[in-house]
UniProtKB/TrEMBL annotation, chain A:
Residues 35-108 form the Ribosomal protein/NADH dehydrogenase domain. GO terms for cellular component: mitochondrial large ribosomal subunit. The lineage of its organism: Eukaryota, Metazoa, Spiralia, Lophotrochozoa, Mollusca. This is Large ribosomal subunit protein mL43. It comes from Elysia crispata. SMART domains: L51_S25_CI-B8. The keyword Mitochondrion applies. Its main location: mitochondrion. It is found in: Mitochondrion. Belongs to the mitochondrion-specific ribosomal protein mL43 family.
UniProtKB/TrEMBL annotation, chain B:
Signal peptide: none annotated. Keywords: Mitochondrion, Ribonucleoprotein, Ribosomal protein, RNA-binding, Transit peptide. This is Large ribosomal subunit protein mL44. Belongs to the ribonuclease III family. Mitochondrion-specific ribosomal protein mL44 subfamily.
């Protein structure tokens, strides 16, 4: 059931990223938390101790802080392809929040789907795909079928009959 | 039977005792024990669902209407993301569409502000876009001519046109993050506005960092869109056999001679013919088709592909780090198919005239 419900797709590269130069696909990230509620304790810890490292390493990502009174903590990631993903950060410790932030930074922004195959190409063969006429002898193009010559049994080497006849002759 | 009659009577009496403002459904719910949280949440969600159906979908809003929006930070991040150091004022100008400036002017007029006393210090991106487009257009052509030196000039133009359409440029602009930054009157942002903004970004880079950096930008973001694309499909040749004939005759070779190589399933819907093209009894190209005529035309296309050296087994595009030291001849012009056909006709006419006289 779940296998049918989860979308399946081929591997995708957004805007041929990395072919020319690599562009981080995470456009902006919003950390949402409460300033006073103990539920946001770890998120506040993350913001105090780890967030600046992230912003310094990734100047191309816009980071927003959004305090919301008495609401659970979460992160909202917005990607260059226009998708927006929200993730709850309830009961997640600062190290785990760091990990999920890095997860968002490394993603292409495409929806996570089941892979049909691990590799994909638009040009499966550069020398041309095989077809029944590929290695056929060009002589057969003008032959009329059925042809007695081509229908004859192909003989390679000595047969058992030949061998026996030879033995008889020797004696 | 008697039990059901009793039930209806009991129900009727219960109904009559209730005030008229009570709904039946509410009354029915009173019978059920309701202590759980889900009891009213379900009803609340149903109500909200119905309301959403009544009101219709949410209005599309600009990203800047939300509270977590800082235009300065977004502009800074745009340059950093692409690995380019823009001059901030030029980059800001690149995102100002003409419609926005006109809209601002109109707003001021409506408010009764004298524009001459308080000038509107806004310049739109039209000029930058023109500069950017000129640079992009010329570089794309130069690059293609050098990478595909045997491709006809018409083919180069076709590929160039494909890369510089509004649709393609808008697609690129969206995926480098221009859409939210553009200042324009209309919303959602039009393809043409996105494309102009992208051209203006190239123009801004050209102004700030010079030609080489702008060309690198074009190579990394525009030319990479040719990957996984069959460039032979982009140029539609009307009469491939005519062009092939002219090419062979000018090179001093015999006329192209199509020959049926194989056939299978004739007179069925799965019919298949393989036609090969020979010149002076030398094989040039072959191709399959549903009919002999289609196969012949496809074989002629295949032959032209071989002449242009753009067959499927061609070398991949030189992009990224490998293209840093690419030596491009900026004055190069490829052979034009039109010229070849013209020359061929002049040649055949002069031969005819000489034979008649």
């Amino acid at each position: 059931m779940s296998n049918n419900a989860i979308p399946r797709d081929f591997l995708k590269n957004v805007l041929q990223n990395g072919m020319g130069r690599y562009v981080c696909q995470l456009q902006r990230i919003t950390f949402r938390f409460c300033k006073s509620h103990p539920g946001s304790r770890h998120m506040r810890d993350f913001i105090e101790n780890h967030m600046l490292d992230f912003t310094q390493k990734n100047p191309g990502v816009v980071v927003y802080l959004q305090p919301r009174r008495h609401r659970p903590p979460s992160i909202v990631a917005e990607f260059l392809n226009g998708r927006r993903e929200m993730m709850e950060m309830i009961d997640k410790e600062p190290e785990e929040i760091c990990k999920w932030t890095e997860h968002m930074r490394g993603r292409s922004g495409v929806q996570i789907v089941n892979m049909i195959r691990n590799n994909h190409t638009e040009t499966p063969s550069t020398q041309g795909i095989w077809h029944p006429f590929m290695f056929r002898d060009s002589e057969t193009a003008l032959t009329k079928f059925p042809n007695p010559q081509l229908s004859a049994v192909k003989q390679t080497g000595k047969t058992a009959t030949d061998y026996l006849l030879e033995e008889v002759e020797k004696k | 039977m008697a039990a059901s009659i009793l039930k209806t009577i009991a129900c009727a009496t219960a109904r009559s005792t209730l005030p008229k403002t009570f709904r039946i459904s509410t009354f029915m719910h009173l019978k059920v024990q309701k202590r759980g949280y889900d009891q009213y949440r379900m009803r609340y969600l149903k109500e909200m669902y119905q309301k959403r159906l009544d009101v219709g979908p949410e209005k599309q809003r600009r990203r800047s209407e939300w509270i977590n929006w800082n235009y300065d930070a977004e502009i800074y991040a745009f340059g950093q993301r692409l690995g380019e150091e823009f001059n901030e004022s030029t980059l800001r100008q690149a995102f100002i569409n003409r419609s926005y400036v006109e809209g601002e002017r109109k707003k001021r007029e409506e408010l009764g502000i004298d524009i001459e006393a308080v000038p509107l210090q806004l310049e739109d991106n039209t000029e930058l876009a023109e500069e950017g487009f000129a640079l992009m257009s010329s570089y794309v052509k130069v690059y293609l001519r050098n990478i595909y030196p045997y491709m006809f000039e018409e083919g180069i133009s076709a590929v160039h046109d494909y890369l510089t359409t509004d649709k393609m440029l808008a697609h690129i602009a969206k995926h480098v993050g221009c859409e939210d930054l553009i200042l324009s009157e209309e919303f959602p942002v039009l393809e043409s506005t996105l494309s102009t903004a992208f051209k203006a970004v190239i123009g801004a880079l050209f102004n700030d960092k010079g030609q080489e950096q702008a060309e690198r930008f074009v190579r990394d973001f525009v030319i990479t869109q040719l990957i996984e694309k069959d460039i032979n499909e982009l140029w539609h040749i009307v009469n491939p056999m005519g062009l092939l004939k002219a090419m062979l005759s000018l090179n001093g070779k015999g006329e192209p001679e199509p020959r049926l190589l194989w056939k299978s399933g004739a007179n069925t819907i799965m019919s298949l013919y393989w036609v090969g093209i020979y010149s002076d009894k030398e094989f040039i190209a072959k191709s399959p088709g549903e009919t002999v005529l289609i196969a012949e035309e496809m074989a002629a296309r295949e032959a032209i592909k071989r002449i242009m050296k753009t067959d499927d087994s061609r070398a991949p595009l030189i992009i990224g780090r490998a293209a840093e030291n690419l030596m491009l001849d900026y004055n190069r012009v490829n052979i034009s198919a039109e010229d070849i056909i013209q020359k061929f006709y002049e040649k055949s006419h002069s031969e005819k005239n000489s034979s008649t006289s």
